[in-house]
Write a structure and sequence with these properties.
four-stranded antiparallel sheet, 48% helix, Arc Repressor Mutant, subunit A, Gyrase A, domain 2, elongated, 2 domains, alpha+beta, 149 residues
Length: 149
Amino acid sequence: MTKARRHALLKDMLTRSPASTQEALVAGLMEAGISVTQATVSRDLSSIGAVRGPGGYRLPSAPSATTDSAHLMSIFQDHAIRVMPAASIVVIHTAPGHANFVASEIDANRPQEMLGCIAGDDTIFIATASDKAATTLAKQINQHIGGTP
């Protein structure tokens, strides 16, 4: 079994529905006749760009040519706990395990002020070009989640 074939099967599985655990993906691949370890699936998920969100592992949304700010703001409303500017960075706190999902949606629906973002387990850093841009973006997000900048 080639890595490319395994990746294609994983993408197909995740396109049909999110997987709650890596072990569920191992079992799904076993059903397809592919024997792999959880460690291999973990590396494969990273290679194909899968993210873990509240519903489990899934493929990120395809990037759009234009920003869908309504969709992105609904994601913030559902998952952001606290948003604050810190110099030229916007810091977003989420529930544990939600940051990668939210960051993938941010990347797919790139806010105008954003230069890039990085996520941990429950924290996202969005880099902006200036302190003013960070403050503006944090205010926009906070308006939708009912927080204060």
